[in-house]
Design a protein that fits this description.
Layout lengths: L5 H11 L3 H10 L4 H19 L6 E8 L5 E9 L2 H4 L2 H17 L11 H17 L7 H16 L5 E2 L2 E5 H12 L3 E10 L3
Antiparallel strand pairs: 1-2, 2-5, 3-4
Helix pairs in contact: 1-2, 1-3, 2-3, 3-8, 5-8, 6-7
């Protein structure tokens, strides 16, 4: 294959935030096709993020966001492995974005595993009764309920929610992208949303 132009490597770096050597390797692997190289880097990023998930993230920052009407806001603890990463612009931008997302989207839980069993059982019972009342076939109820439970997770669990700035990606995808870019584990530890009168 011909030598890859520095301008192409530069463009890929700007579009993905990946390191120069990673960009060169991705372009070499995809015969210089920038779109395929982006996909290649994303796949590698997912694999890197999965490896880093087991590492302890015990540093980090507390972030806050208060809406312009001063009636709703959020606090968020976002952890990283090192103070070095916690001081970067990317980390701080992520923390601000997540606090703003929490304020706007009002998640109740961090992840599906955090939903109490009794809450989930209550939701399933409501869905089942609604479907029976609608006359849905009994042999399809479980499959339809499963779909409704997934939708419930998307509205109530922060990591499953579509990102308010880009509905094509979930919050967990946004987190994976930053983990791959920063090279260390980043964890949303806890959050709380406040609203006047609630």
């Amino acid at each position: 294959m011909a030598e890859i132009a520095a301008s192409v490597v530069k463009e890929l770096r700007e579009r993905t935030g990946s390191g120069m050597m990673d960009c060169k390797a991705a372009l070499a692997e995809t015969d210089g096709n920038i779109e395929k190289a982006i996909d290649y880097l994303r796949e590698k990023g997912l694999a890197k993020a999965a490896k880093k998930a087991a590492r302890t993230a015990s540093d980090g920052r507390i972030f806050h966001y208060v809406h312009t009407n001063f009636k709703v806001g959020a606090l968020l603890e976002l952890n990283s492995e090192t103070d070095f990463v916690a001081k970067t612009d990317e980390f701080n931008e992520l923390g601000h974005e997540l606090a703003m997302h929490i304020t706007a989207a009002n998640p109740l839980y961090l992840k599906p595993e955090d939903v109490p069993t009794e809450d989930l059982d209550r939701e399933k019972a409501i869905y089942r009764q609604q479907l029976i009342d609608e006359g849905k076939p009994a042999d399809r109820l479980d499959k339809i309920i499963e779909g409704k439970v997934n939708k419930f997770y998307e509205t109530t669990c922060l990591l499953e929610q579509p990102y308010i700035r880009d509905g094509s990606k979930k919050i967990k995808d946004l987190l994976v992208e930053i983990i791959a870019k920063m090279g260390e584990n980043i964890v949303i530890r806890r959050f709380s949303r406040f609203m006047i009168g609630e």
